[in-house]
Amino acid sequence: MLSLLKKLTAGTPAPAQPVTPEVAVVDKVDPFQLGLFDATLSGWFNQQTNELFPGFLISPEDTVLDVGCGDGGNVHFCGMRGAKIVIADIDAAKVESTRQRLGDTPARDIECHVTDCNPLPIADGTATRVVSTEVIEHVDDPAQFLAELARVGKPGALYLLSVPHPSSENLQKGIAAPEYFEKPNHIRIITEEQFKAMVSDAGLEVLSHSQYGFYWSMWMLLFWESGVDLGNADHPMLNSWAETWQKVLDSPRGAQIKSALDAVVAKSQVIIARKPLAE
After folding, report:
1. Per-residue pLDDT of the chain (279 residues; tens, 9 = 90+)
2. Does 11 fall in a domain?
3. Which of 10, 95, 155, 254 is deepest in the core (most CB within 10 A)?
4. Which of 135, 133, 146, 127 has its CA nearest to residue 184?
5. Within a domain: 249
6. Within a domain: residue 143?
7. Which of 276, 48, 32, 51 is nearest to 160 (CA)?
8. Are the C-beta atoms of 64 and 126 separated by less than 8 Å?
């Protein structure tokens, strides 16, 4: 910079024009793509091991049932592994969009149900893999819902179940919009002990219980404060948080920091369970 200034001023009778420094253009961090990346760091969507989540392997021989399929991210991963896919959701539009999304996968079969899951219109012992993420906190009768999930699994079937972690839910209290904790949204906060008991009482064996999602917990907290719409969540606070978290993950000890924070405030808790083999 000093040599540049000398060249600009040497032998010039008029004062040198000020030099405007170049400002690097930084690509905006997509908070949802960052959230997906953060999830993969927690073990989701492992393309090397074909595990949807650690301990939940998907193979072409599996029949995967996703109850409350939402936007279909989980079953798309399973469909890419060639499994048979069965989806069920109360929202017909989500079922249809997920069906279309599965069209570009090598899933060996696709079966769709629009249902409130009470009961599930699915035969006993249908699935080798049962997925239901962020659903139980919405239903009126968790015991009945889990009994249905247990019924439709084959003996030995694996279950991937998740609900919001109480650390994140309690953080949202008094800040989230009132409807966040009203039907049809989150009508209960489920503790770790309650979650394990619910799954065990349904006759399933809990194999693992973990948590993740500090990034999303903080993002949601800032989302309520930002006042923007979820479909267009563009706000300086949200953008700054995504940029900060990206820098954290890129730092030398980013994974260690993420793990420590996930252990303190987590968006979700995840149980892998198994249906006992028939005696």
Report:
1. 334 333 333 444 444 444 444 544 457 899 999 999 999 999 999 999 999 999 999 999 999 999 999 999 999 999 999 999 999 999 999 999 999 999 999 999 999 999 999 899 999 999 999 999 999 999 999 999 999 999 999 999 999 999 999 999 999 999 999 999 999 999 999 999 999 999 999 999 999 999 999 999 999 999 999 999 988 889 999 999 999 999 999 999 999 999 999 999 999 999 999 999 975
2. no
3. 95
4. 135
5. no
6. yes
7. 51
8. no
Q: How many residues make up the chain in this entry?
A: 279
CATH number at residue 76: 3.40.50.150
Give the span between the Cα atoms of 214 and 168, in whole angstroms.
Answer: 8
Domain that holds residue 141: 46-213+266-274
The pair of three-digit structure tokens given for residue 214, joined into one six-digit string: 């500090």
Is 21 part of any domain? no
SS (H, E, C) the chain: CHHHHHHHHCCCCCCCCCCCCCCCCCCCCCHHHHHHHHHHHCCCCECCCCEEECCEECCCCCEEEEECCCCCHHHHHHHHCCCEEEEEECCHHHHHHHHHHHHHCCCCEEEEEECCCCCCCCCCCCEEEEEEECCCCCCCCHHHHHHHHHHHEEEEEEEEEEEECHHHHHHHCCCCCHHHHCCCCCCCCCCHHHHHHHHHHCCCEEEEEEEECHHHHHHHHHHHHHCCCHHHCCCHHHHHHHHHHHHHHHCCCHHHHHHHHHCCCCCEEEEEEECCCCC
